[in-house]
Each structure stands twice: as C-alpha cells, then as structure tokens.
Amino acid sequence: MDWSWFPVYFPQLISGLWITLVILVLSMFFGFILAVPIGLAQAAGPWWLAWPARAFCTFIRGTPLLVQIWFLYYGLGVLFPMIPGLRQSFMWPILREGFYYAVLALSLSYAGYEGEVMRGAFLAVPKGELEAARAFGMPRFTLLRRIWFPRAVRTVLPTLAGETVTQLKATPLVSTITVMDLMGVRGKINQDTLRVYEPLLLVAFIYMCMTFVIVWIFNRIERMVPQKR
Amino acid sequence: MPLAATVTIFTILSFGDQGYGDEIARSALMTVQISVLAYLVGFLIGLGGAVGKLTGSRVTRGILDIYTTVFRAIPELVLIILLYYSGNAALIAILGMIGVTGVQINGLLAAIVVLGIVQGAYQTEVIRAAIQAIPLGQIEAAKAYGMSPVLRFRRITLPAMLPFAIPGLANLFLNATKDSALISIVGFTELSQATKQAGVFVKYIQGNPLYLLVFYGIAALVYLAISMTSNQFFAYLERRMRRGQARPA
After folding, report:
1. Gap between the Cα atoms of B153 and B151, Å rounded
2. Nearest partner of B53 among B41, B70, B42, B66, judged by Cα
3. Alpha-carbon distance B184 to B29, whole Å?
4. Measured between CB atoms, does A172 come within 8 Å of chain B?
5. What whole-number distance in Å separates Cα of residue B223 and Cα of residue B217?
6. Among A79, A149, A173, B152, which residue has the least CB neighbours within 10 Å?
C-alpha cells in the first residue's frame, strides 16, 4: 500500500466529493419536481397523460442508467455541434459540459423511480379526506395543494432515506462521461500514479461513510416528525 | 464489417455481414447469461446468508452483517471494479504460489462471480425478511412432526418463504440485468458495450453522428425487452408460488 499520492490529490478529492454532492442534491431536487406530475398523471390523469407517464417510468426502470447516460451524452450530445451557429451561442458552454448531462440523466432517472412511488402515494391518500375537501367546495387545484399533495408526501417520507442512498450510489456512473466527481478523481489518480487499489478503497470508504451519514440524518429527521398512528 | 452505402434501420438490424442484428442478439444473450448466472450465485449466497443470519453464531452473524451492510452501502460500480481487479490479482497470486503462471482469467466467469457477490448481499436481506415472515406455527408444526432441520428447510421454510421473497427477488433480477451493464467499464463486451462499439464504428464509417443515438436507442430497447420479460416471468412465478397460501379473508 502506497498512500504518498494522498496529500497531493487531497484538494481534488474534496472538489470531487463536492461535485458528487451537488449532483446528488440537484438531481433529487429536479427529479422530485418531475416525479410529482408523473405520479399524479398515473394516479388520476386522463389516459393521454397517464399512458406517457407510465411509459416513461417503465422505460427508466427497465434500462440501465449507464445506457441512459450514454444515450444523452454520447448519443444526443454529439448531435448538437451539427446545429449551425450553436457553437457560437451562449448555450454551448452548457451543451459541451458532461456535468449538465449528468444532472439531466440522473434527474430523469430519479423521476422515473420516484414517479412510481408518488403514484402509489397519491392513491394511498384516504378517499374520505378528498371527498371532505370537495364537500367544502374546494377547487381542484386547492385540494391538490392543501390536502392531496401534503398527505402523499407524508407517506413517501420514510422511503426517502433509501431513495437518497440509491441515488448516491448511482452518481459514480457520471465519471464515465468525463465528470470529475469522486469516482472521476479516482480515475485521474489511477491514471497519474498507476495505483489501482488505494484510490478505489478510499472512494469506496468515502461512499460508505456518506451512506451511513445519510441514513443517520434521515433517522434524526424521522424522529423529529410527529407521527400519528 | 463492411456496410452498404445507404444504411437504414433494416440494414442495421439485419443478420450477416451487412447488419448488426447478429452481434446485438449475441451480446444480448451474453447479458442475459451473465445476469441469470450472477443472480443464481447471488441466490445461493442469499440463502446461506439468510440462514446464517437467523441461526448462526454471534461471529457468523457479525460477519454477515458486515457483508450485507458494507456491500449495500458502496456503489455497485465501485464494488464491481474493486472486486474485478482484486479478484483477478488474488487468483493470479494464488495460482502463482502453487506454480501456475501465465493464467488468463476468464472474463465471463469473473463478471458472473463479481456480480453474484454483489447480488448476494441484497438477496440475503430479502430472503432473511421473507423467512421471518413465515407464520411461526408452520415451522413449529414441522418440528412437531420430527423433521430434521435440513428436511424442514427444504420442505417448509423454502417453499413457504418464496411467495414473500419473490417481489423483492424480482426487483433484484432487474438490478442484476442493469448492473451487468457496469461490467463494460472493466472492458467486458456485453450488450451495452457491443452496441456502443457498433455505434461508434457505423458513425465513423458513415460520417453521421446520428448513428450513435440509434445504437444507444437499440441497446435501451433490448434491455427494456429483457426487463419486461422478466417481470412477466416473476409475476407468473409469484402466482404459482402463492397457490399453497391461504387466501386473505
């Protein structure tokens, strides 16, 4: 075991860790925002909304994330330079950067899995509460905002810890599209120093610690939320 | 592989020299093969692990707890790379000690074992929970009949546990299929890698980057077909396994 590279690459490892966290938080944020309409469309939408939402979830859950990421980055990404004028436009720095494809791919993936969870959560809200709201003459959107959505979110909260860990474990895939997350920095150390095991063991250890920290944080939060059974 | 001047989706998917149908089919078969075998390795580990967790000594339980906790906390990609390299190196070192050198480890076997070990950690937890869900009376009845532990496990625990385990196990098979794509990172050619190479090649020959998208799309659709088939199969299996269960009142 040779750890002499560690002090040299410490700043890069920290920045890699930061990028991993940023991708995790952004993809979960955007993914959840997408998951709510996807779940709602499946639970209560007309067939022309429910059907595409279901197809999206099936596709995301039935294909490897790696293929989804490559599809977006290598498949779609190489098409953009063919559009005339795009290289000069303000969009180019974004369309060139693997980071944005990573966030997009992971957001869509999270939306696919979480959309299915939200579908179940919307359906699990007791009918009587929705009927009561309707009896009060609440407009449909108010009902969604005040009753249906908050009640649905309540039921998914306990699953959130597991979902976050799953999402964290999906993030190292972005290192295959040039993103310098924790795993990407590992690849660079590997290339520069030809050490295989030490950097791998280190990032494995860091990911493991992050998982434990996530589980611990969610446990704390869960205990803070009063539960009425 | 020579390609016709004008390429349509039909030429791409045709079999033989002109198209990639046979390459895609073969690599899809490779993906299914890896997934199924890795899944079975995982199932054996899972059965052993679950029994060990429920009936083993404190040391056994401690070791198994560390195994399932650590392996489920580290990203599959990191684990696969780590196990693939270290497993190969360890095996070569061991063989070197007994005087066998110049061995080439079979990539397919390594992929199956690595994925199987990862699967085992998840399957252990699913099977352990399923065994615990068996009504205690059934186990006690088996004991009252004087069945030996092995017989009891084979005749009662195993069939009674399966209906509880199958939904979780079905999900894990999907994971095995999807994780098999990660094997491509260590340079093993399966479905995702084969279609990627084909896409890069056709794109280069034809000078049209659109082909990359086409090939990735084909790869995704083949994975989707595998997933949906396996879902149907597990749904059938669950119905079959639940025949012996009492219907909920």
Report:
1. 5
2. B66
3. 15
4. yes
5. 10
6. A79
Q: What is the ipTM of this complex?
A: 0.89
A122 in contact with B, Cβ within 8 Å: no
* Nearest CA-CA partner of A113 in A174, A184, A32: A32
Look up residue A118 and give its two tokens: 């939200």
Distance CA B37, CA A56 (A): 29
Is the minimum CB–CB distance between A64 and chain B shorter than 8 Å? Answer: yes
DSSP state of B248: P
How far apart (Å, rounded) are the C-alpha atoms in residues B183 and B80?
7
Half-sphere exposure of B241 (CA within 13 A, CB side): 18
Q: CA B43, CA A66: separation in Å to the nearest integer?
A: 25
- Token pair of A20 as six digits: 């991993």
> Which residue is closest to B212 within chain A, CA to CA?
A75
Q: Which residue does chain A place closest to B210, by CA atoms?
A: A79
What's the pLDDT tens digit per position in A113-152?
A: 999 999 999 999 999 999 999 999 999 999 999 999 999 9
* Binary contact (B85, A197; C-beta < 8 A): yes
What residues in A contact B82, CB-CB < 8 Å? 197, 200-201, 204
Candidates B78, B199, B223; nearest CB to A207: B78
Residue of A1, A23, A58, A74 to mutate, testing the B interface (most B Cβ within 10 Å of its Cβ): A74
